[in-house]
Design goal:
alpha/beta; 18 helices; TIM Barrel; globular; 8-stranded parallel β-sheet
Length: 508
């Protein structure tokens, strides 16, 4: 059965919003599950220009008037465009409207049916656009993924509000023991969790998802878990138990992930890669285990935090996002049609459109979300980015073994390499080898990231993408997502050449 959607320019209302007198409803059963499934329109895009006609009352004899449609014109800015699934219920509703609706009769749909829709708004030129992303069995209204940022940068408040506003919120599964002032940490000495079990708290993970759900309800939520974490498999288990819909994993090749989620068939699994070669290895291994990625995140070297290539290779043309997206797409096409999510240096709608033109289906942003009121990061962290200059965003060595990108604060300015005083408290990441690598580079990654979460400017490590200095003020998550989804006036969108967009039906 083909998926069908219909675009309607109007403001239809649910039944409860009208008087029941002279009102008519479809009499067929409304299949909510079917309707929601049809709104999951994968990689397809609907875009066009909306036209409307104004009704004008023409005077007749004896005080009578007749409604007459005026001249067609481009819809005004912010006209609501609604997208409905063409189920049996909606078909009957639509036919009833055409046949019997009049000044004395109104055709309505139920509140439940009316809720299953998508909305877009016209710009100054009447243009509108619907873009949706399908990740496994979950449907993301807007093609925007909020990147997982730890420690404590993207926890319940940020992730919950991102998902609430139609994008995909991501809870960071890193060092959850620090959540809520170490409330759920099993063992603490000098403000530090002792051991990986204390650092990665099951109870904190459950609380993070519970609180995020209070904000976004049953909308999809992801959990980002670094493969390099010492207790990686345990943390995946905690996230599954907490109700994560999507598991995102980078910082290594998560070859065992299909096995870890085998008892959770509805959970989508999404690797982060920086090359087509990495995706090939993952797909080959996962397919042997009966799975393929539900999506793949392609991360370029302009991202914040840990990078996927060595420091000497960061700025080579072949490693830039614009080069690796087509490379990953070519490899993806050999295995299936799961979505490609581009990350690293994405800042505005122009960036989004450019990278989508190269084959990406959606984008992931991290640093831009730090500049929101709802971000879980400390106010000190946010102010550091607001006050940062371009030259303040630098590359640093990390105990993980790969370079990282961060703001040049006192910690970085005063680093002492081969520092024997660095102690390993938490055994956070396997590559660090119980603090050996931390002593080489001069800082403990878990300690310094947690200090940034707690607003300790002198000892905190403040990760940032290359464009972090462009944050000038805080805005709401809703404002940011709306800004990202709004094309600039210079953007070129395809036009729908139609006399009446109401009649345009798109088949998938």
């Amino acid at each position: 059965m083909k998926k069908c959607l219909i675009v309607i320019i109007s403001f239809l209302c649910a039944g409860e919003m009208f008087s029941q007198k002279d009102s008519y409803f479809p009499q067929v059963f409304f299949d909510k599950k079917q309707a929601e499934a049809q709104l999951g329109y994968g990689k397809s895009t609907i875009e066009g220009v909306a036209f409307t006609r104004e009704k004008r009352n023409v005077p007749l004899t004896m005080g009578m008037v007749k409604a007459k449609m005026g001249k067609k014109h481009v819809a005004r800015p912010n006209t609501v465009i609604m997208l409905f699934p063409v189920t049996e219920y909606f078909t009957e509703f639509y036919n009833l409207r055409r046949k019997i609706e009049s000044s004395k009769k109104q055709v309505l749909m139920s509140k439940e049916a009316f809720a299953v829709r998508r909305e877009a708004y016209t710009d100054d030129y009447g243009r509108f656009k619907f873009e949706n992303l399908k990740v496994g069995k979950y449907y993301i209204e807007k093609p925007i993924v909020q990147g997982g940022m730890g420690v404590g940068v993207s926890w319940d408040q940020l992730a919950g509000n991102v998902s609430k506003n139609g994008a995909l919120g991501t809870i960071s599964g890193i060092c959850t023991g620090y959540y809520d002032n170490l409330k759920y940490c099993k063992k603490v000495v000098n403000g530090r969790p002792i051991g990986a079990d204390a650092l990665n708290s099951r109870e904190a993970m459950l609380e993070l998802f519970k609180n995020a759900r209070k904000i976004c309800g049953d909308k999809p939520l992801a959990c980002n878990i670094l493969h390099a974490l010492t207790d990686y498999s345990k943390i995946v288990e905690y996230a599954l138990e907490a109700g994560a819909n999507i598991i995102v994993t980078g910082a290594g090749l998560p070859l065992e992930l299909p096995k870890l989620v085998e008892n959770y068939p509805d959970v989508a699994i999404v690797p982060i890669v920086s090359s087509g070669r990495a995706l090939k290895i993952i797909c080959k291994k996962w397919k042997a285990a009966g799975r393929l990625p539900d999506a793949v995140i392609v991360e370029g070297p302009k991202s914040g935090g840990h990078q996927g290539v060595k420091a000497d290779d960061l700025f080579l043309p072949e490693h830039q996002l614009e080069s690796i997206v087509p490379e990953v797409k070519e490899e993806r096409d050999k295995w299936g049609d799961f979505p490609i999510i581009a990350a690293g240096g994405i800042w505005d709608n122009d960036d989004i459109q450019k990278i989508m033109a190269l084959g990406a289906d959606a984008v992931q942003l991290g640093t831009r979300f730090i500049g929101t009121y709802e971000c879980d990061a400390s106010e000190e962290f946010k102010n550091i980015l607001i006050n940062a200059k371009k030259e303040d965003i630098v590359i640093v060595k990390s105990p993980v073994g790969y370079p990282g990108r961060a703001v040049k604060t006192n910690l970085i300015k005063n680093l002492t390499h081969d520092n024997p005083t660095i102690k390993c408290y938490s055994n956070c990441v396997t590559p660090c080898n119980l603090g050996e690598e931390a002593r080489k580079v001069g800082f403990c990654i878990a300690n310094c990231l947690s200090d940034s979460y707690n607003g300790k400017v002198d000892t905190g490590l403040f990760f940032s993408g290359e464009n972090g200095y462009r944050i000038e003020k805080l805005i709401s998550v809703e404002e940011l997502i709306n800004e990202l989804m709004t094309p600039t006036k210079n953007s070129i969108l395809a036009k729908v050449n139609s006399e009446n967009v109401v009649e345009n039906t798109v088949n998938f």
